[in-house]
TrEMBL record:
Keywords: Membrane, Transmembrane, Transmembrane helix. The keyword Transmembrane applies. It is a multi-pass membrane protein. Belongs to the major facilitator superfamily. Phosphate:H(+) symporter (TC 2.A.1.9) family. It comes from Anisodus tanguticus. InterPro entries: MFS_trans_sf (IPR036259), NFD4_C (IPR056555), Nodulin-like (IPR010658). Residues 6-190 form the Nodulin-like domain. This is Nodulin-like domain-containing protein. Gene3D superfamilies: MFS general substrate transporter like domains. It is found in: Membrane. The keyword RNA-binding does not apply. One of its GO terms (cellular component) is membrane. Pfam families: NFD4_C, Nodulin-like. The chain crosses the membrane at residues 65-91, 97-125, 137-158, 164-185, 259-277, 297-317, 329-348, 354-378, 390-409.
Amino acid sequence: MEHSSKWMILIASTWIQAFTGTNFDFSSYSSELKSVLGISQVQLNYLSMASDFGKAFGWCSGVSLMYFPLWAVLFIAAFMGLVGYGIQWLLIQKIIILPYFLVFLLCVLDGCSICWFNTICYVLCIKNFPANRPFALSLNISFNGASATMYNLIANAINSKDDTLYLLLNALVPLVTSVAALPILQQPHSQTLRADSVHRTMNAQRNDLERGFKYECLDGKFSWFKKKESWTSSFLLRDRLLLLGEEHSANLLIRKLDFWLYYLAYFCGGTLVLVYSNNLGQISESLGYKSEISFLVALYSACSFFGCLLSAAPDFLRDKMYYARTTWLAFALIPTPLAFFLLVLSGSKAALSAATTLVGLSSGFVFSAAISITSELFGPNSAGVDHNILITNIPLGSLLYGLLAALVYEANLGKPNKESKDIAHMVRLERKKETTGMETKSFLFKSIAIACCSIRLPRVFSSL
């Protein structure tokens, strides 16, 4: 009964992930939002960054799970999404009028909702599957990547011509899913990981080592072991923070060099591919393939799904070839710069589809593997807080890459260009014109950053 209970919880959390990855369909309605608000491309980039900025407050969800019941945290997340996306739907339907700043705050609220849902699912997997944590996490997170595809199917079944329908679905579907999954998540399960289980286990191991073989004494004398006890204790206490899975508080975490190297790696990997997905609509439109946006979003979502599943491969290949999980993370970053260079060299539909496929596979692997890496390096019980501290680099990266694109755009905007009235036609037929230079330069800068990170990562993490 207990065994089936935890699998039911995994299934329920997987369905939550499948219907709460609402940030992946931003490209589907971003053009409509831009038109209704009458804003520039730079301002639209700030709105996509605002959703990422909401993840900077994701650590609150980990703290909330320590003090509030799961159902309360679940419905707080659903309510934030209902308010954030629901009001935006009213705006895009021209039922209400809102200033740009309030829309920015609503996007921040959307990002908070997504991050809270993710944290709930991560914690459930970590607690219920301590022995098979990476596999459970990869399976769970993979369905988050499939969210855009599922929303695309639902929207097309209702009205394939209404792009604003995505906002309404983003507001209602997560709430309905939370209500349906709550009875399963609330059932008792005795094999969860207690809050102090890791500390208790490691303390017990340490005590056994300190005592040595005291219990194998002869005539009740422990003199030899007592002489060694203080030496063993001092050795273990000195290197105790290097033990894999040892719990790291937030204060200790931010003082670790290992964490900041990991932070930089994620900044150059997971953050960049997320920015690509947020701007996929604008990228395809600038290349003259506006009608293919829904297809590209679904393609990215499907590839992200399979990328998450691939992140479990290291556990199955452990007996044949073993690499640290951080090394696999470095390998997973390689397709991203290749995709960007492909877009630089060719703006064809085939190149765009191939690049989206590569970025989707890379993003899925990185997002899924990152949870396991955080749990393994800094402790499973504090992973809900620690990983949310890690992803604070997402809004920073989103802002940096957005500003980079804006600066390149402004630099090229003032230059004379006779074909500026028909950007799509110009990009397809005259790739070497100056206007397309702003896109290629942006991709080139990002590609160089990711390529450098991919080369350096195996060396950086070899000591871990």
